[in-house]
């Protein structure tokens, strides 16, 4: 997530348990207004207040991009994960207020494609649900190959096969059905783009196989979530101003400095313009540089930081500000 | 505020002029007494009341006449407006963005009524009242991008985002500072910027592109760019260089104050929601030197900036030949006093010009 990404206050208006693993959540704007439209493949970052910890998890929007009355997401319970999905499953109730981000799309359709070949594994089906709704409207041509563990865990299989009997192909692991990727990729018309969303292994498999078959990289798309750009809280000493500021997990270093009443320079707030560049006087810890401005030498020297996007993890940080 | 629209021309007899209101709100592009390329981008979240930053799409006294000029250019050269087939959805996105923004920001001038996909658009200044079906091209007289940009000041480049780059795959370009959509169509960010001197070496485009790829819905950005134009000619295109290039040789010390214009582009960047494309509106504002110098701070500063700007920039921007004349003229309005930081006129706090 970039600095300054817009947030939306929403209310959870519906929760539907689809199967043992997956639950669907519906969000509507708390102020009753319309949500922004989005493009198929976009995600929203959901903020969860979990006993003093704020969790930020990205989830693909699966509802119709044209529908501005509500967004829906599907969350797969991950018992080993860091807890965001468990929070959604166990703690969130209908009527709860939550904060989500504006849609961000890092997995958009290439609208030049003559045909969209979609490969989904498990919960990786969600971005395709929105993309298919978008393509329906644009009369775009697509074909979906969807692998799930079992019929019982096949989220949205019925809806997909009923609406698109000729374009949707489902494979159940427990019935030893598998996508014949080699054949699938060789049989495609010129101008086809392939999209994959699913477990890491599946993404690797599709990328490797397509590369080996000579598919151009630009025609192979995979979902990739940017790690949410919050981080651990830390403390910073501002030498010139003579104060110490706590930087919360949710604000940027620049925001914390501003909150302390210090007029620090900035322009883009996105790590590109160089305006906020600040000298480091002392540090004991690790910098988390997220800007596009500093040269590698600057980073290696540990003498500069761009407070609009970058953070710090460690004991001491003293800035010349 | 209701705007009085000028009846004026940007060609032939050049009756274009700025009112006092337009002069005071002119987007003067220099925040200090010198200029060099930089990654000068900031969030586009409004600005002081009455300034060109206040609204998402600024409408001013030149609106109606600029739209007439655009229609003339398009009639002579339809290739000024192009949209590759995959960009139609982005065109609808742009139409929606502009109609929603203008009807909210200027309710006395524009109205948008939506009932599902049945839309009605009223544009009072241009006398338009159209009903159409959103996302159905057959219900509009032009494609969606062309339809709305024939009614909106400024050029528009609509960029497809893919493969970690931006591609100029659609646009409406009739008020450009000497570049051509027909030449740039289909190019990527680095390709269309190839002619710009110094900035590549400074790493500006690499950083700017990273920033642009990350411009998100609901969080637009903006920057200013500038050049110099002789006569208030909007269409300084390479296609017509044979017509306007020669006008640069008509400057004299007597006519320079009225003929030589500072040309400023307010460039904004919006993520388009349905297509995930990026739109780059390039809004052109022009002001005669004799009007610039009515703001003492601007007169002092413009003299210093144009005198000192690197030769490469003055050459690229096309005023190297006239620079001595321009600097000579402006020197009358620079008494050497210091200037305040920032672009605003500061009429109440900056001293008047000291004569002699
Ligand atoms: C995606 C949006 C953008 C588009 C479509 C665009 C397009 C252009 C074009 C067509 C030119 C003229 C090149 C020629 O001589 O043929 C130009 C010039 C230039 N662009 Fe961009 N540009 C964009 C964004 C930016 C950004 C973000 C920067 C940031 C620093 C930038 C910096 C420049 C500079 C410094 C010049 C030279 C201008 C002058 O000296 O007058 N551009 N741009
Ligand atoms: S404000 Fe632009 S790099 Fe930090």
SSE layout:
The complex is a heterodimer of chains A (321) and B (356).
Chain A: E1 7-17, E2 22-29, E3 42-50, E4 53-60, E5 71-76, H1 84-91, E6 97-101, E7 104-105, E8 115-121, H2 126-138, E9 142-148, H3 157-163, E10 168-172, H4 181-186, E11 192-197, H5 200-212, E12 220-222, E13 234-238, E14 243-247, H6 253-259, E15 278-288, H7 296-301, E16 304-305, E17 311-319
Chain B: H1 20-24, E1 42-43, H2 63-76, E2 81-83, H3 88-105, E3 110-115, E4 118-123, E5 128-133, H4 144-149, E6 155-162, E7 165-172, H5 181-184, H6 189-192, H7 204-213, E8 221-230, H8 241-244, H9 256-259, E9 260-271, E10 278-288, H10 289-292, H11 296-308, H12 311-316, H13 323-331
Antiparallel strand pairs in B: 1-8, 2-7, 3-4, 4-5, 6-7, 6-10, 8-9, 9-10
Helix pairs in contact in B: 11-13
Protoporphyrin IX containing FE is lined by residues 37, 39, 41, 157, 159, 166, 168, 179, 184, 192-193, 195-196, 199, 204, 208, 212, 223, 225, 227, 280, 313, 316-317 of chain B.
Structural class of chain A: alpha/beta
Which kinds of small molecule does this entry bind, naming each only once?
protoporphyrin IX containing FE, FE2/S2 (inorganic) cluster
Largest interface, C-beta within 8 A:
A-B, 35 and 31 residues
Query: What is the overall silhouette of chain A?
Result: globular
CATH domain fold name of the largest domain in chain A: Rossmann fold
Spatially, the strands of the biggest sheet of chain B line up as: 1-8-9-10-6-7-2
Q: Which value, in Å, is the CA radius of gyration of chain A?
A: 22 Å
Q: Count every beta strand of chain B, where a strand is a DSSP E run of 2 or more residues.
A: 10
The number of helical segments of chain A is 7
Give the fraction of residues assigned to helices of chain A: 10-25%
- Runs of chain A with pLDDT <50, length 5+? none
The number of helical elements of chain B comes to: 13
Tell me the count of domains of chain A: 3
What's the main sheet of chain B like?
Answer: 7 strands, antiparallel
Any low-confidence stretches of chain B, pLDDT <50, length ≥5?
A: none
| Share of helix of chain B, binned | 25-40%
